[in-house]
Each structure stands twice: as structure tokens, then as C-alpha cells.
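Q: How would the C-alpha cells look for this protein?
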Amino acid sequence: MLGVAQPQPIVQRPLRGGPLVWATVLAVAIAGYGIGLASGRSELLLAAGLVVAVPLVFAWRLEAGVLLLVLVRPSLDLFADRTLASYHGVALNPASVFAVLVIAVGAPYMIERWRLLRRAPSIYPYLLFAGIAMIGVSVAAATGPAVTEWMRLCAVLVTYALAYLAVNSPAAVARLLGAIVASAVVPAAVGIGQWATNSTQAIGDLNRATGTFLQPDPYGIYLAVVTVAALALVFAARGPWRWLALAVGAMTGMALVLSYTRTGWVMVVLGALVLGIARYRVLLVLVPVAIVIAFVALPGVQSRVQSVNQQQEVQYGTGDSFHTRVELWRQNLPKAEQKPLTGLGLGSIVQETDTAAHVHSDYVRALVETGVFGFLAFVWLLLSAAVGCAFAMRWARRSGSVPLRAAAVAGFAAAVAYILASGDSNLMTQSSVSGAAWALMGCAHAAGTIGRDRVAPRPLPAARARRARLLGAVGVAAYRPGTSAETGSEAGKVSSRAWSSSSSPFSGR
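A: Here is the predicted structure in C-alpha cell form.
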């Protein structure tokens, strides 16, 4: 007997690849195995199998691919001087191959899921900045390095987009936030091991840990981003997950001290204060106490901070004092007048210096290498990240979901710290560092979208509303009002039993 079907709970399904994504996976497989068979070399066939496995994971389940990306990428630079194989002089570096594969499978995802992705607060400014930077590649003096830098920029862009798309529920938010924190276990352990075995890198008069990174500064900045996320997880998580987050935070904090990265230290202090102002007030007391203890108990920290007043520690590289950085800015800023509209092209500052010195400021670099319009787009991009996280905090708080609030406040603190670090660091195309930061901010932006859909769902378009009314006819499963047109997530507050379990790091909703 026909009757009106009872409403059923909406189950969030994992996002999977569509026809375009699977076609890309097939093309990668054909290209990889084709090269291996044509060369007749077994190591190339093995490399092809590893290469195909990555896009397969992304196509099968986007969240699994994003978790793999977040967990693995910070450790890949440990193998920067090794190759999977080589073909006609082209070395297959694990980190670079992984980045290319993420771009290859991520771009189709962005096209297929554009209706979802366009709600991401930073997607339009990021696409604009990448487009302007691509124009500068055509006028760069060295096209090869410029293309390489642009690909690294795109790898970070795709990481942000995929992180935003992969997170479609509070449980997914909790998993991604936990993965970002867990990704630092190996890099932090390696850095601590370097200190214990006296295998740190000597820069100036300091022995600095580099962990799985090539240089101590990006290593320290990455650890700072994860430490901020770990702090948020410590206060938001419950049970054993809180203690695990605290253990990882202690490891990253110790490795950060051993890296002697002053920018990373400032990022943690600023990020912790932002966390305290935004939600966890006890940090406003703990942070000053921790600073005093660090100065008293760790003489190396005190001497490192005081070395800011030194005119120069090393001539170039990652050991520059603040005064040396200022001198680099003064030397490079006039170059913006050469091509003020298009810029000199990504990587031009390093290519045009005899010592291959970086400018140590993303703002100066954006102006010189991408022009005035690129600089404005870059500033818009950074502001959109922070503002998007601020709005995410508002919607997450109204939704009453603990994971959403934790991710939003962690993303906001990281965004503020990242904006500060961009002033004296090279983060724009650092896929290992910026990838982690933008994955966290993408998670925070997605948390805001989920919270908004739960509190104030977007109305369906007219055509979909008509189909929904039709499906609500007798004998057909009824359409449930209050469902998001974009994500299908149930509006309003749902029972915590729908997703909260012993495997979740959070309690409550």
C-alpha cells in the first residue's frame, strides 16, 4: 500500500571523483606505465605504480586523499636529494612528483565541484593571484624557474581547495584537524633526534634543527602552525585525544625551540594570544608565564632573541638577522619599477642575485615578481583567509558544534600568525609550509560553511524547489525542508549521536 515515506536521517556521503577526475587518473596511469614499458626499466614501472596510487586514492575518496596529503607532505623533503627514478635526465623527486599529482587530480575536482568550491572565502583571490602570477611567467628572464615556482604556488592553491571540499561534516572537520596535528609527529621527532645525535645544521654560531625540511626557518614556521592547531585541539578535545594532542604539542614546541626560528616563536605567541582572546581565556595567563620561563630556563632562546640587534649573522641563506632582511628589502623594492604591471616573474629575485638570496618577505616578493596587481591580489588573499575564519567562528559558535568551533578558532589564529610571518619569510611557494597552513584555513572555512548550513540553510533554486515538491508526492520519499542546496547537510542542530563516538576527539556536538 502506497503512503507518504517517513523522513530519513541525512547521511553525509564521502565526496568521490566524477568522470573528469577518473579520466585524469586513467591518463596518468597510461602515461606512467607507457614511459615505464617504453624504457624497459623496472624501476620506472615501480615508480609508475606508486605514481598511479596517489590519484587513485583521491578519486576513490577525496577525504582520504586529503588526509594522505596532509600527513605525508611535511615529511617528503627528507628525501629531497633522492629520486624514485630518472628519465632522460629528469629526476623524479618524491616531493615534486607528489605535488604534480595533487595538481593533476585536484584541478578536475575543482572543476567538477565548482558549485561547492565557489563558497570558499579565499578561492577567488587565490585564483586571481595565481592568474596574475602566470602572466608574469611569460615575461620572466628565466622561464624554467618561474614555471617551477608557479607550480608550487598552484600546489598550495589546490591543497586549500581540496581541504575545503573534503570537509562536509563536523566529523570530517575533526579528522582533518587531527591529521594536521598528527602530521608533525615525524618532523618533530626527526628534529629532536638531530639535536640528540649532534647532527643539527650549523648556521652562523648556532646549531639548528631542520627536521624533515631542508632549512630551519621553514621547519620552524611549519611547527608553529601545527603548534597553534595543537593548542586548540588540547582545549577542545576530550579523553585520550586531549592527551595525545598535548603530547604532539610538546614535541612540536621542543623541536621549534631547537630550530631557533624566531619567526616561529613569534607566531606561536601571537597565535596562542589570539586563541586566548577568541575563546580560551586561560592562555592569556599561560602565554606570558611560558615566555618568562623560556627566557630564564633556556639561555639559547634569550641569546637568539637578542641577536636581532646584530647587523649580520651570515651573508645569505636562512640565518639573516632582522637588519639584513631590511637591507634585502631596500635592495629589491626598486626592482618593482622595472615592470610595475606584470612584475619580473616568480623566482626572479633569487635568479638575479649572485648569492641566490631570498628577499625574506612575501609582500616585497609579490610586488617585485607579480607587479602591483599581483601585490593587491596577494593582500586580498591573506585578508580573505583571516576574515573567512572570523566569519567561520561566528557560524560555528551559533551551530553549537565543538569540532566546528575548534577548527574555526584554530584557523583564525593560524591565519593571523601566517599574515605576520609573510612579512619576513618566504612562504608564498613553500608547499610544505603553506600547504599545512592553507589546509588548516581551508578546514576552518569549511567549518564555517557547515555551521552556516546548519543554522541558516540556503534556499533551493526555483528548479530544484519544484523537483523537491514533486518528490514530496504520495508514495515518493519526501523532501526534508531545511536542507542545504549545496551540500545536502541537515539544517539546525542535529543529535550528537549522529557522528559523535568514542573514535571522535571531541565530546558533545
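Residues 99 and 155 are 6 Å apart (CA to CA).

The longest strand covers residues 201-203.

Upvote if useful.
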